User: What shape does this take?
Amino acid sequence: MSSSPLRNLKPSVALIGCGKMGSALLRGWLSARIVGDVFVLEPAGLPDEFQDEDNVSGYDSAAALREIASEIDVVVLAVKPQIMAQVCPDLKDIIPANAVVLSIAAGQTIGGFENYFGTDRAIVRSMPNTPAAIGEGITVAVTNKNVSAEQKQIASALLRAIGQVEWVDDEKLLDPVTALSGSGPAYLFYLIEVLAEAGTKAGLDKDFAMRLARQTMIGSAALAEADARTPAATLRKNVTSPGGTTAAAMDVLLKDNRMQSAFDDALAAATARSIELSK
Assistant: This one.
């Protein structure tokens, strides 16, 4: 690191991009008090909610970071994947050689970042999901060979600000991870949609059906979390009395393995697309 180990577990961070996910990260870091100084590169300006934070300062260009570059321990890339090629070259010659680069951008590989920053750079690639915006996400991360145990510890702490963190050893797993947890919120939101629509077709008022569907999803997720040691299949069976209404519905959903097959195909398509986008 650029100074004492972990700066007493409070690294100085350059946050590149402060949109929804970048702001969620920063909000979490400040709440948990796990960072030292935070240098925010955001052309649109530092969001108002962070203006009065003593350890947060805003910059409108990579060049403006040069004056404080030696203080940076971690560079967190929180910009959209499509502008990464514009941002990274500007940072390459500014950030210290011993600063770790942590990306939360989808489809951006470690190899791609090594092309930008060099093969000796410590790089962490991660894949969060949108519930991270409210601190309820799950992020899966992988490192290159240059990341030390200390740097991995820092990355874990920074990512835990937006939810749970899991580590994998094989970067190729980030493609099915993207398909499952990265895209997963969309599947669950769609399930709320179709459940509410089915309720409407069954005779319920549209808004009433949507309220029921949303809260059923929220409550069921909370129950799964509260009873985390119980398999999901057991939780499902606990609701399904033999010969009852739930059993009648499950007979339809499980017929010919139709629902599993649909999700198999959906995740296969998303995984293939993730691989394609990473090339």
